[in-house]
C-alpha cells in the first residue's frame, strides 16, 4: 500500500511540475514578446520604469519556473532526494517572491490610475518632439490605438505649444484621424484636425480605449497568476511528501 501511495505521489508530482513547466514557458513567452514587440509596446515599457521592471521580473520568473518545472519532473521520475530538496527550497523562494510582488502591485496600484497618467502627460508631453522618449511613446500609443490623450483632446489644453505653432489650442498630430493606424498612415484631413474640427480628430481618451482592449487579458493574466501560485503550493507539498517517502 505504501509503495502504491509513493508511486501515485510521484506521478502527481510529475503532473504538477509539468504544469509549472508550461506556466513558466507562458510567462517567458509573454515577457519576451513585451520586450521585443515591434508595434510600440517596447517603447511604452522603456518609458515607464514600473512597466520596465515588471516586464523583466516576468521574464526572470518565467525562466526560473521553466527550469524548476524541468528539475521537478526529473526529480520525481528519478526519485532523487537531492533534486527534490533543491526544487522545494527554490520554488518556496519563488512563491514568496511572487506573493511579495502581488502585494507591492496592490499597494502601488494608484500609479496606474487615470489621474496619474493625466498628470504625467500634462507635465512631460512635448507634442510632436519625437526626440523625447516620453512624447514619442505617447504619440505611438495615440496613433496605434486611434485615441487622444488620457481622457480626450482636452488634456492638451495645458500642454505647452511648439514655438512655431500659430494655433492657440493646437491638437497634436498624433490625435488626427489616419487612413491606416501607423506613423506611415495618411491623414484624413490634417489641417482641419489641427484647427479643431472634431470629426477629423480621435476624440476618445487612450485610458478607456486601452483598458477596454486589454480588460479580457488582464483577467486572464490574473487567473493564470493565481493558478500558478496554487500549482506551486501543491507541488511543494507533494515534493516534501515524496522526499520523506523515498528510502
Question: Outline of this structure?
Answer:
This protein is mostly helical.
List keywords for this structure.
247 residues; mainly alpha; 8 helices; 0% strand; elongated
> Major β-sheet, in short?
none
Distance between the termini: 15 Å
Please state the CA-atom Rg, rounded to the nearest Å. 25 Å
Overall structural class, as computed from helix and strand content, comes to: mainly alpha
Number of strands: 0
The total count of helices amounts to 8
What coarse outline follows from CA principal-axis ratios? elongated
Question: Can you write the helix and strand succession as a string?
Answer: HHHHHHHH
- Kindly report the average pLDDT value: 78
**What share of the residues does DSSP label as strand, in percent?**
under 5%
**Poorly predicted tracts of residues:** 164-168
Helix share, percent: 55-70%
